[in-house]
Write a structure and sequence with these properties.
By secondary structure, the chain is α+β, with helices and mostly antiparallel strands. It is about 30% helix and about 25% strand. It has one domain. It is built from six helices and nine strands.
Amino acid sequence: MRSAYHYTPERIFDRIKAEEVLRPSSGIVSGNWKIPKDIFIPREKYTFALLDEPEPESWKESGFMDLLMNKLWAKSNVERGLLRSVFGGAPNYVLVSFPVEGSEAYVLDSQHLVDNKSLKDDEMLEKYLNSMVPLEDYENQYSMPELAVGSEIPLDLITVVEVRKCIKPKWALF
């Protein structure tokens, strides 16, 4: 069985503990990106995670770990509110792991979002989405695998790996 590593703001993890389940809550794309009509995406919402290790070397080398941490910092501050973000110090994040298997888990290659600087955004997105394979068919062929889990994860399967302060990005005003 494979392991998933998921980063989440501490306040959201408190909600997961209260509800005793981690529910998929993110779309496969965000912002202004649209899924091309000819690409089938099995579910509307997913929990995104890293596969088998919490800080893959390929993610660090590409700068994607820094982007993930920046997004985590921003999401943590939105969850806390403006005043607490300005005066409350750095928020915490929680790194959790859980076993993953089954038909509701997919792997995508995030390398398509890094390597294709010459492509237009919609072409990069199409390559990324077309890389989606069921976890059971995944054979470690991707250099930057990203896991998308479409099912709920019960709290009793979740292990807290660490709780750490978010690192403030250089662009942050507070």
